[in-house]
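Hi all, posting the design record for the shared folder.

TITLE: backbone redesign
STEP: 1 of 1
STRUCTURE INPUT:
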């Protein structure tokens, strides 16, 4: 057993972390959990009290939340060169956390049919859905990748939000998003990770 353990379900946001792990190229152990049983069992709740996936355990460290896991892994395994250099750092953190906060909230509310009124905009972190979408389109249209001309861990998370958004109808496949996602979804690590999770679904 390796000192890097990945807790997931193949039909979850764990697919984001699977992609990140495959980009790392480091050995890891996968623990597949069931939503109604093992994910809510005392053994796993001691690791993640939310009873949700994904989670990683790296030695004695436990990390939850996809964006945090991506950032942690990039720093913990610098040889993969997925973290930001000095010039990329501002965009790396800006857009990683924009995607984890405003974009995640805006897309979720859009899928649930929750509309933000004009009076509520000042109380909502993302303002409104059109503002979040326009800002995301701006972010991914400036360069080939979110921080410039090089792929980083931030692209794993930002790209996954766009890929899921297109897949589940939470965002229209406008040119900025389609071109960025097409570039990312051809990466060998993404394809390999998807095949691994699809095989788990098929065998369940």
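Okay, here is what came back for every position:
SEQUENCE:
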């Amino acid at each position: 057993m390796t000192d890097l353990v990945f807790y997931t379900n193949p039909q979850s946001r764990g697919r984001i972390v699977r992609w990140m792990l495959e980009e790392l190229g480091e050995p890891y152990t996968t623990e597949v959990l069931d939503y109604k049983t093992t994910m809510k069992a005392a053994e796993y709740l001691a690791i993640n009290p939310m009873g949700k996936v994904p989670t990683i355990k790296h030695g004695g460290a436990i990390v939850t939340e996809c964006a945090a896991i991506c950032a942690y892994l990039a720093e913990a395994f610098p040889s993969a060169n997925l973290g930001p250099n000095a010039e990329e750092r501002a965009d790396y953190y800006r857009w990683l956390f924009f995607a984890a906060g405003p974009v995640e909230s805006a897309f979720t509310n859009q899928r649930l049919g929750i509309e933000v009124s004009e009076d509520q905009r000042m109380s909502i972190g993302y303002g409104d859905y059109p503002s979040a979408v326009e800002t995301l389109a701006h972010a991914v249209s400036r360069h080939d990748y979110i921080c410039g001309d090089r792929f980083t861990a931030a692209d794993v998370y930002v790209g996954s939000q766009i890929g899921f958004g297109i897949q589940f109808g939470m965002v229209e496949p406008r040119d900025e998003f389609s071109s960025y996602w097409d570039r990312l979804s051809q990466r060998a690590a993404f394809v390999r990770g998807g095949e691994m999770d699809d095989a788990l679904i098929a065998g369940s």
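COMMENT: Strands lie at 4-8, 29-32, 55-58, 61-64.
Let me know if anyone wants the other runs.
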